[in-house]
Design brief:
Helix content of chain B: 10-25%
Shape of chain A: globular
CATH architecture of the largest domain in chain B: 2-Layer Sandwich
Structural class of chain B: alpha+beta
Strand order of the largest sheet of chain B: 3-7-1-14-11-12-13
Shape of chain B: globular
Distance between the termini of chain B: 69 Å
CATH topology of the largest domain in chain B: Aldehyde Oxidoreductase, domain 4
Largest sheet of chain A: 5 strands, antiparallel
Oligomer: heterodimer
Distance between the termini of chain A: 55 Å
Structural class of chain A: alpha+beta
Largest interface: A-B, 34 and 38 residues
């Protein structure tokens, strides 16, 4: 196996062009497991770990925080992300163990694109934009278009996910994840809720309850139609429960060895309801 | 005012928290586990396993694998020169499957090659044609005979009943339940590993292996290899935990066979996934219990039926069954009982020894029943347990008299006296709520519950088995050398043995010689027995040496040896002024003694389950405080209070380590640890999906050690390894029930069992 340790993004991009079999590695917390289980057998690996620009957080224009795809979760748990995008900090804290969080990053969650990817619901709720570069081009894709199925995305072989734009929203936001253990667990069901006071709306996205992350647009529209969602409002238990029921109805979970569809749907209704109540406490 | 004094380091004798000799190495990563071993010219071995729970082997073609460059040999059932099967109790498990595979993961062939990757490719080139059969997966089908025998020995491994007292006794209170226990894995961290080195003449083999019982391995391996026992030598490799899973043969025979065939050293090590298929698990069980009680809640009679799923091969199922049914009553008086028990064969993974050994299953049932009695008579869980608490001298349902120290009531009252944790406050750390880092709940979503569990556990082997232990002590120049075959699997015997020698002989320096089969058996590191048994052997050998030392000193200095005692590191005359250091007294002279410790004899049970089948018993009480999110079904165990009957504490740090570790393992069974089976297939053979408790799941543990010297035990100390994990599980489940007001009869408790 050849390992190309890129110091510059262009080196890595050129290597992808040159080697049709090349696999990108950043933290390796997904890929190395796949390799150890012999599920994949890459002959060329391109390491992104030493590319500094992938490991930076920038606020280019006001209202947008741009996070490099290689910034480890352990950094995302704290400032400046904690204040600007608290749901992302919370989701990052739920990833694996301290060792995993010290090396894993958003680029890996996007590259793997599992419906159980912990930070993906945050991207869906915040309408995050994904930066993809090739050696001679770049594009910015909405997260809603990026993820196309279970472990499938629109990323092309010669593209590298360089950064993610997160809108900084005025309003409460939170992330909750259910697992059968209090830490270091794969999500059985998760939800991210964002209250956008300026636009007087609420957005919610669900993880682990469908082939992709599910944005509950019907539930969001229903809520906006029955309730004023600007700052200072409060949500009744009845409205929150109905919102939870509607969000659960938009999920499409399955039975597997981790849980049952019935429990997952139930958990979504509870999470959605609780998050909404918290958002307007 | 400053004072100066000479600080003397306290001697690491019995009763002190002597540090583990391997502790720093383990923490720093420099300890050599068996999987770290290496030999010159070494090849790697790997195992091909059945993908089917039940199938007939039509053909095996190894020619493509053999033709692969780097492959040295491929072996199947045809290459086993000796006995084709092995087993701890019944030799019914094939070294390699021959005609049938009977569980998913059963070994079919093994290869030796120059690299693990070559091994992997070679395994993929072995062509096995299977005729897939419908597996027997429901243990009740084995009991009823609904399924044809899946093994020549039949589908019922053992059936035993217990008939005691008045079969028609009843009372105003009758409570019952059917309790289901899922399959738990021992989940030790150091995976199975061995290094086999063939003798240069090819007529013998030296195996370095992580095991619980070197001599039992030796017996089974040499039979399969068709070699005399002296041609097979075993040395204990570094062991990373065991909990019962290393009592059965796993890779031992395969590794030796490959080494003898290849004529080169062979290293084998399992991956975590393979480990789930490579060792036995805790028996899943279904237990029906009906308790009859008087109006005060005093037990009148117990009816019970146990079905243990033994999986495809016998392993220790017969002994697990006996442990389970003979502990039906728990630590409570009971004069009348009707118990029926089955251990059966299915096409599920073989099950055998795991910490608690059948008693874990029984305890979940009897403790759930005690709470039902308490509720029925309007008493608290503590009151109803105290009313029934057993004392020394009580007859058990087997007719055996409880001769061990039995401080059951004291375990309960001392646990009850432990302060409760802080109430659920307003400023609570969100991560400490159920759901943990998932941030699923607020304080207002949480309810708290309290539950109890009390247990009795037999110590050492039962039913007439003489599981003796051997040790040798050599004293020379003030240094003691100890030799034994006691497996150190993490329990701390390598800490305890020198403590014994220091206390008995007045030495400071103690050398532990290699742990191998060049001395008599120590028995298994299981059944909470090594402190008692191997501790007794080391103590006995050291006492014999001390006797000879006193005799020698007496002769040299014309003092009656009976007047001599060890005082610190000196030998002193009790009635005179004579004094000599042990070092000086043993200068240039070697005293060597070997001692075998045997526990008292036990008996087999008769057809009515009557007989003195157990050696001794220990007791413990657990009180669990749990926080539950009833809507999401998530649980956080807040505190475990416990008082354990230990006889005597020999090393406080080791003792609390056993208690805290056992509680974590019992917590795992209560709320998360389960091998999920579907149609005979394991669905979650990884630590991603087989969940063990993390630091955020572990409760605060407040422990009291009840020290009532056990006269039968050589050091006055009872085994303490198993009790911590037994009654903590029912205590946690009782606390969940108490929090949500709903009956739960299955463990582990899943979120949907709480909230749906």
């Amino acid at each position: 196996m050849t390992v190309i340790v890129a110091k510059e993004l262009t080196t890595a991009l050129a290597a992808l062009r040159e080697h049709a079999d090349a696999r990108l590695i950043q933290g390796g917390t997904d890929l190395m497991v796949e390799i150890n289980f012999n599920h994949v057998k890459p002959t060329t690996m391109v390491s992104l770990r030493d590319i500094e620009e992938l490991r930076t957080i920038r606020t280019v224009t006001s209202g947008i925080m741009t996070i490099g795809s290689g910034v480890p979760y352990s950094v995302l748990e704290g400032e400046p992300v904690l204040s600007a995008i608290p749901a992302l900090a919370q989701a990052s804290r739920t990833v694996g163990s301290p060792q995993i969080r010290a090396t894993g990053s958003l680029g890996g969650n996007l590259g793997t694109c599992s419906p159980a990817g912990d930070t993906l619901p945050v991207m869906f709720a915040l309408d995050a934009m994904i930066h993809l570069n090739t050696l001679d081009s770049s594009r910015v894709v909405s997260i809603h278009d990026f993820m196309t199925g279970v472990k499938r995305s629109v990323r092309q072989h010669d593209e590298i996910i360089t950064a993610i734009d997160f809108p900084v929203v005025n309003g409460w936001q939170g992330y909750s994840k259910v697992g059968v253990r209090n830490a270091m667990v794969i999500s059985v069901a998760s939800a991210c809720l964002v209250a956008d006071h300026e636009n007087a709306n609420v957005r919610i996205a669900l993880g682990s309850v469908g082939p992709t992350i599910i944005r509950c647009r019907e539930s969001e529209a229903w809520l906006k139609s029955v309730h004023d969602l600007s700052a200072g409002q409060s949500i009744s238990l009845d409205v929150a429960s109905e919102f939870g029921r509607r969000a659960a109805a938009e999920s499409s979970p399955i039975d597997d060895h981790r849980s049952t569809a019935e429990y997952r749907r139930h958990a979504i209704s509870v999470l959605a309801s609780r998050l909404l109540r918290k958002a307007y406490q | 005012m400053a004072t100066s004094s000479t600080v003397t380091k306290p001697r690491d004798v019995l009763g002190t928290s002597a540090l583990r000799p391997d502790g720093a190495h383990k923490v720093q990563g420099s300890f050599e586990f068996t999987s770290d071993m290496h030999a010159e010219n070494m090849l790697w071995g790997a195992t091909l396993r059945s993908p089917h729970p039940y199938a007939r082997i039509v053909s095996i073609d190894t020619s493509d694998a053999l033709a692969l460059s780097g492959v040295h040999c491929v072996i199947t059932a045809r290459d086993v020169p000796g006995k084709p099967t092995y087993g701890l109790i019944s030799s019914d498990q094939p070294v390699f499957a021959q005609d049938f595979v009977r569980y998913m993961g059963e070994p079919v062939a093994a290869v030796a090659a120059d690299h693990p990757e070559t091994c992997r490719r070679a395994l993929a080139l072995i062509s096995v044609v299977y005729e897939v059969l419908i597996p027997l997966t429901d243990p009740e089908d084995a009991v009823s005979g609904a399924h044809d025998p899946i093994h020549p020995d039949g589908n019922v491994i053992r059936h035993q009943r217990i008939i005691r007292g008045d079969q028609f006794a009843t009372g105003p209170i009758v409570v019952e339940g059917e309790y289901v226990i899922g399959m738990q894995d021992q989940a030790f961290l150091g995976l199975e590993a061995a290094l086999a080195i063939p003798d240069s003449d090819g007529l013998g083999v030296h195996l370095h292996v992580a095991t619980q019982w070197l001599h039992e391995d030796l017996k089974q391996i040499s039979a399969c290899l068709n070699l005399p026992a002296e041609k097979v030598r075993l040395t204990l490799g570094g062991v990373g935990g065991a909990f019962g899973a290393r009592e059965d043969i796993s890779l031992q025979v395969h590794c030796c066979l490959l080494a003898l065939k290849a004529g080169r050293p062979i290293k084998m090590q399992y991956s975590r996934e393979e480990s789930f298929f490579g060792h036995v698990h805790r028996h899943p069980a279904t237990i029906f219990m009906r308790h009859h009680a008087d109006a005060n809640g005093k037990i009148v009679k117990i009816d019970a039926r146990f079905v243990f799923d033994g999986g495809a091969y016998t392993s220790t199922s017969p002994a697990v069954l006996i442990n389970g049914i003979t502990h039906t009553q728990g630590p409570y008086k009971c004069d009348n009982a009707t118990v029926d028990g089955f251990a059966v064969r299915t096409n599920n993974p073989p099950c055998g020894a795991m910490r608690g050994f059948g008693v874990v299953q029984a305890c979940f049932a009897h403790e759930s029943q005690m709470d039902k009695i308490a509720a029925a008579v309007g008493k608290s869980p503590v009151e109803v347990r105290l009313i029934n608490a057993m004392v020394t001298g009580d007859p058990l349902i087997t007719g055996q008299i409880m001769e061990s120290v039995a401080p059951v009531a004291r375990c309960i009252t001392e646990t009850d006296a432990i302060p409760m944790p802080e109430p659920l406050g307003k400023t609570i750390n969100e991560l400490a709520l159920p759901g943990g880092s998932g941030l699923t709940a607020s304080r207002s979503n949480i309810v708290r519950g309290i539950g109890w569990g009390v247990s009795m556990k037999n110590l050492m082997y039962s039913e007439g088995f003489d599981d003796y232990a051997t040790a040798r002590c050599i004293l020379k120049d003030g240094v003691a050398s100890l030799k034994f075959a006691t497996s150190e699997v993490g329990q701390g015997f390598v800490t305890l043995a020198p403590q014994i020698a220091r206390s008995v002989l007045g030495v400071d320096e103690v050398i532990i010689e290699p742990i191998d089969t060049q001395i008599g058996s120590a028995g298994s590191t299981s059944a909470s027995r090594q402190t008692w048994m191997s501790g007794g052997a080391v103590d006995g050998a050291c006492r014999l040496v001390r006797e000879r030392l006193f005799h020698h000193v007496g002769k040299m200095h014309d003092i009656d040896p009976l007047r001599l005692v060890i005082d610190g590191t000196d030998i002193a005359d009790q009635v005179g002024t004579f004094r000599i250091s042990v070092e000086e007294a043993s200068d240039g002279i070697e005293f060597s003694e070997t001692f075998e410790h045997h526990h008292r004899a036990t008996e087999e049970l008769d057809e009515n389950g009557q007989g003195n089948c157990h050696t001794a018993f220990a007791f413990v009480a657990h009180r669990a405080v749990v926080d539950v999110d009833p809507e999401l079904g998530l649980v956080k165990v807040v505190q475990i209070a416990t008082a354990q009957d230990v006889g005597r504490v020999l090393n406080p740090l080791s003792a609390i380590g056993q208690v805290e570790g056992g509680i974590a393992q019992g917590l795992g069974l209560a709320v998360m640890e389960e091998i999920v089976m579907q149609d005979g297939k394991v669905r979650n053979p990884s630590f991603t999906d087989y969940l063990l408790p993390t630091a955020l799941d572990a409760p605060e543990v407040v422990a009291v050690m009840i020290e009532e010297n056990e006269p039968q035990a050589p050091l006055g100390a009872k085994g303490i390894g198993e009790p911590p994990c037994i009654s903590v599980t029912p205590a946690i489940v009782a606390a969940i029930r108490n929090a949500i007001g709903k009956d739960i009869e299955r463990i582990p408790v899943r979120p949907q069992d709480i909230c749906l």
